[in-house]
Design goal:
The complex is a heterodimer of chains A (252) and B (497). By secondary structure, chain A is of the alpha/beta class. Chain A is built from 6 helices and 12 strands. The longest helix of chain B has 23 residues, at 10-32. Chain B is globular and about 70 Å long. In chain B, helix 2 (40-48) packs across helix 5. The chains are: A alpha/beta (252), B alpha/beta (497). The A-B interface holds A 12-14, 16-22, 24-26, 28-29, 40, 42, 63-66, 68-69, 130, 132-134, 153, 155, 157, 198-200, 203-204, 233-235, 237-239, 241-242, 245 and B 144, 147-148, 151-154, 212, 214-217, 220, 222, 227-229, 397-404, 422, 425-426, 428-430, 432-434, 440, 443.
Chain lengths: 252, 497
């Protein structure tokens, strides 16, 4: 059976600041290598949005002004469909600004409070000290051994705090993550993943790419669908070199 | 201590002499002991006399060139145009474009110089510009670059805006085709503002047409006034072109200097014009026009050439006497571009002692890489392409930007691809994920001997060239290690490095 995936990219013309398009490229490449046909769709400001047409959703980060511009469209026009997709367990990957928008609210440095989608049990507070740098964290739910480590690069002045009982995406080994204290990175709710990791995120973490693809296929074609294995030697070489560069010696 | 009416006191003169004496001494000592001498002298002089830049540039005519891409090339073209027409010019190397480096160059400059042509880092402009008394400030373009350093593009814009606002130069030369740059005119309404860009004719096209293609669209740009996505009639490159905002009154300002490119009998000609194009009728009111066979390839270099002519003409325009004396005409200025040479690391072709050829193409950000890759459409001597990517602070510590480079394998040559540099793995993945698969043996350590073995392993005699697409520190270290390995002189003119 020829499998196909429909990826929906939300606001690609506004939230496209930090190389996050690499996530779309990673999903597409690793799907195509397994003979899965990928259809890529862009949905932006003012576009009609029918979530039933899509299997996997992506939203990236952008400049403050751009994020401000689309908040109304996101919350007034797109929210209903997004919630329906989330409740249908469809996977979402939300990076940086997108992650913040999926939270409950954002408190700016100047004291304004901006409402978010309220899907992820988090809120964000804008602070002066930017959190910038390489990040390595571990997601034990993802895999054992080498593949549990998530690599990325963070650059954010928003500090995101998880509600009590909320699930982080990973535990920070190097870098900051959601804020400067918790040593936690990202947040997961159902199949919605929010994270601050650029780099770009999925190209640096093939296990995560494959996990999202597998989740998407299972939602679409049934629980017993298994993603065929695919070589990750180039990705692993890059990750190894990176850990050396960062002087990290981890349990593999 | 400043004199009451702003005149130089004896004390200030002494202080200046002392500071420059120390600066010169330190410079000589550093050079004698084979050290870099571009920043320390400036640092010391600024300490001894914080007002040194103001003092030295007071009676000089200075043009500052800033922007994301094209600063170095545009500066070198302006310098060429001025020198070919008999003017004495002082300029700074690209590596000395921050405050301390600028101070070293300016304070220790030959006092007989007619003009200072200085490249200034975008973020440094805010503090450097008001101290340098510029006659003219030129801004080439603004692209996403070094986001780990700047945070957002808007921050870079703010730095430049503040610099222009504080310096209030007599004239501003801005890229009219770049919406964000064009809006910098508001920073100093009292400055005479001139815009340069591509002439509107039917030869323009986007580099790719299909909006649904799986690629980052670098042509997307937001209105600097209201934030809406701008509509374009056509594109020159990336987000440069003829734009207007459908939601507010922001519009392309019309051009004072424009260029067009023509290929006649396999030679490429650049025509640069000085005059106003009416923004409504698109008809030009021509005053001057001249054509030249311009040796630097790529539309981005045509933009740089037009910028340089606009900058030089503007700088000279304030001195009618001088122009009359030298019998200058617009044509002379444009024709000086005929002898333009590539700047350090930019389309720099080197023939190695063993006859093999390499060519460096410096890139720093997605727009620069996109434009550089578009050159391969025209090159007929591509033997192989080597990407060299580092992530030191001067390069940007983060390589996320690689994923913002649109890569279309169908527009790139069918040649072997190699990667090297600290982030070679990330670059290899970038290529592979867009369909340019390279074998693992082509992921190479940045070591001259290893690269030599891998790149020239087929050992065929060929006139073809290995093109090296490299970011800043990767280009510097490759150049040095190749120079040592192959035995050619790594030194570039100190001014242009």
């Amino acid at each position: 059976m020829n499998q196909e995936l429909h990826i929906c990219h939300l606001y690609p013309d506004f939230l496209n600041l930090y190389g996050d398009f690499g996530n779309i490229l990673a999903l597409t490449y690793r799907a195509k290598q397994r003979g899965i046909t990928v259809h890529y769709h862009k949905i932006s400001l003012g576009d009609v949005f029918d979530q039933t047409k899509y299997d996997l959703f992506f939203i990236g980060g952008g400049q403050d002004q751009e994020q401000g511009m689309l908040r109304e469209d996101l919350i007034e026009e797109k929210r209903e469909q997004i919630v329906a997709a989330v409740e249908a367990n469809k996977p979402f990957l939300c990076i940086c600004g997108g992650y913040q928008l999926f939270g409950r609210y954002f408190h700016t440095k100047s004291g304004e409070k901006w409402e978010g989608l309220g899907i992820l049990p988090v809120h964000t507070i804008g602070k002066t000290k930017r959190l910038i740098g390489d990040v390595v964290c571990s997601a034990k739910w993802l895999a054992e051994g080498e593949a549990q480590y998530l690599h990325g690069f963070e650059n954010h002045s928003g500090y995101t705090y998880l509600d009590k009982g909320a699930m982080p995406m990973a535990e920070v080994i190097l870098g900051s993550g959601n804020d400067d204290q918790s040593k936690q990175e990202g947040c997961r709710y159902k199949n919605v993943f929010g994270t601050y990791l650029h780099g770009s995120f999925l190209p640096k973490n093939p296990a995560m790419t494959d996990y999202l693809l597998q989740l998407t296929l299972q939602q679409k074609y049934g629980e017993d669908v298994v993603l065929a294995p695919l070589d990750t030697s180039l990705e692993n070489y890059t990750r190894r070199k990176e850990r050396n560069r960062l002087n990290l010696h981890l349990q593999i | 201590m400043t004199a009451f009416f702003g005149e130089e006191t004896m004390l200030q003169k002494l202080r200046l002499s002392f500071a420059t004496f120390c600066g010169r001494l330190i410079q000589r000592l550093l050079l004698l002991t084979n050290h870099q001498a571009s920043t320390l002298p400036g640092k010391v002089m600024l300490r001894l006399y914080p007002g040194i830049l103001r003092a030295v540039t007071k009676n000089k005519k200075t043009i500052l060139v800033t922007g994301t891409n094209g600063k170095t090339t545009t500066v070198s073209l302006i310098v060429r145009i001025l020198r070919e027409n008999g003017f004495k010019v002082v300029t700074n190397a690209s590596g000395a474009n921050l405050l301390q480096g600028l101070t070293t160059v300016v304070a220790l400059a030959d006092s007989r110089a007619d003009y200072f042509v200085l490249e200034v880092d975008e973020a440094a402009l805010a503090t450097a510009a008001p101290q340098l008394h510029p006659d003219t400030v030129l801004v080439t373009n603004l692209f996403r670059d070094q986001l780990d350093r700047y945070g957002e593009l808007r921050n870079v814009f703010q730095f430049i805006y503040q610099g222009i606002e504080a310096a209030k130069p007599r004239a501003l030369v801005l890229c009219g085709d770049d919406p964000l740059v064009a809006s910098l005119g508001n920073a100093s309404p009292s400055s005479a503002t001139y815009y340069f860009g591509l002439y509107d004719d039917e030869h323009h096209q986007k580099f790719w047409q299909d909006k649904d293609e799986l690629a980052v669209d670098l042509s997307i740009s937001h209105c600097p006034v209201c934030g809406h996505i701008l509509d374009y009639d056509w594109f020159g490159l990336s987000h440069l072109g003829k734009y207007h905002c459908s939601q507010c009154s922001f519009d392309h300002p019309g051009l004072d200097y424009h260029f067009s490119e023509k290929i006649v009998l396999e030679k490429s000609y650049l025509t640069i014009s000085h005059g106003r194009i009416d923004p409504i009728t698109s008809l030009p009111t021509l005053w001057h026009e001249a054509s030249v066979e311009f040796p630097l390839q790529g539309r981005y270099n045509a933009y740089n050439a037009c910028a340089a002519i606009a900058g030089a003409t503007t700088l000279l325009s304030n001195d009618e006497e001088l122009k009359k004396q030298k019998g200058l005409s617009f044509s002379y200025l444009v024709r000086s571009l005929a002898t333009a040479k590539p700047s350090f690391g930019r389309q720099e072709k080197i023939t190695l002692p063993n006859g093999r050829k390499i060519c460096f193409l410096l890139i720093k950000n997605p727009a620069g890489m996109e434009q550089t890759l578009s050159l391969f459409r025209h090159f007929t001597d591509v033997r192989a392409i080597l990407f060299a990517i580092n992530s030191f602070p001067a390069d940007s510590c983060d390589v996320s930007w690689l994923w913002d480079v649109p890569l279309h394998p169908q527009t790139l040559p069918q040649v072997p691809y190699y990667v090297t540099g600290i982030r070679r793995g990330d670059m290899a993945l970038r290529l592979r994920y867009s369909g340019i698969d390279l074998p693992f043996e082509h992921v190479v350590d940045m070591d001259a001997a290893t690269l030599d073995k891998v790149l020239f392993s087929d050992d065929t005699e060929t006139q073809d060239c290995i093109y090296i697409v490299a970011n800043y520190t990767a280009m510097l270290s490759l150049r040095q290690s190749f120079a040592a390995f192959y035995g050619f002189d790594a030194k570039w003119s100190k001014e242009e490095e």
